[in-house]
Amino acid sequence: MTEETIKKRLYHVSVKDLAEFVINHGDIDYRYRKSATAIEGIRAHQTIQKRRPNDYLAEVTVEGIYETDDYIFSIKGRIDGVFLDKEIPVVEEIKSSYLAMDEIKESDKFTHLAQAKIYAYLYATQKDLSFIDVQMTYVNLMGFHEESYLNHFDLIQLSEFYHLCLEEYCAWQNKLFEWEKKRNKSLNDLEFPFKNYRKGQRELSVSVYRSLLEEKNLFLQAPTGLGKTIGVLFPNLKALAENKLDKIFYLTAKNMGRVVAEETIKIVLESAEIKAVVITAKDKTCFNLDKACEPDSCSYAKDYYKKLKDVLPKLWENNLFNQQTIEKLGREYELCPFELSLDLSNWVDVIICDYNYVYDPIVYLRRFFDDNKLKYSLLVDESHNLVDRARSSYSAAVNRDWIKKIKLNLPENHNVMMESLEKIDQQFKSFKKRFSKSIKFEKVYVDKVIPRGLVTPFNSFIAAVDNWLADENSFEAYSELKEFYFEVNRFLKMRDFFNDKYRFIFDFSKKNWAINLMCLDPSQWIKEKADASSLAVYFSATLKPFDYFKKTIEGDCESYDVEFDSPFNQKNLKVVVNTEVSTKYKERDEFYGVAAQKIVEFISVKKGNYILYFPSFAYLEKIKEIFEEQYSEINLLSQSREMTVVDRNDFLNSFHDTSEIIGLAVMGGSFGEGIDLVGNRLIGVGVVGVGLPMVCVENNLLKDYFDEQYHKGFEYAYQLPGIQKILQTSGRVIRSENDVGVICLIDNRYKQSSYLKHLPKYWDTTMLSSNNRTIKEELSVFWNQNNN
Question: Lowest-pLDDT range, 132-146, 300-314, 761-775?
Answer without folding.
Answer: 761-775
